[in-house]
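Schema walk-through. Below, the input block comes first and the output block second. Nothing else is stored per chain. Lengths vary across the set, and this one has 154 residues.
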Amino acid sequence: MNNLLHYKKAWGSVIAAILMVVSLHASAKPPIYTSFFSDLAVAGYDTVAYFTEHKPVKGNKRFVTEYKGAEWRFKSADNLAMFKADPEKYAPQYGGYCAWAVAMNDTAKGDPHQWTVHDGKLYLNYDTDIQAKWLKDKEGFINSADKNWPGVIE
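--- output ---
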């Protein structure tokens, strides 16, 4: 009976330690936003196209690269090459998380259809309502978000 009590206490300590590690790990967010069931950055949209075609364009599975732990897709080999040559230029700010949310010291998904290119940088927003707020004071929100990033994912 004494041994059984000893094992229960030992397993209790092991389980508590595992739960603590899992909760610490769960609080950190990846540097690039992807949906829960995918590793696609920007939901598979071609980030170079925002700059060259000025609209969201779905990427193709044939033109893929890995960057910061996420899969990035592109419309063409040319766009893939442009991204590989300068990923920081084409990757959305704040890892593709909603720029307004980051300005509010939080995170939310970035919607590839709610986007802005401002001063040569791509920003995504959560939805049309949030983007309307974002557009009223982009500069102010960018200043706040820059101060909060990357702390909001750590």
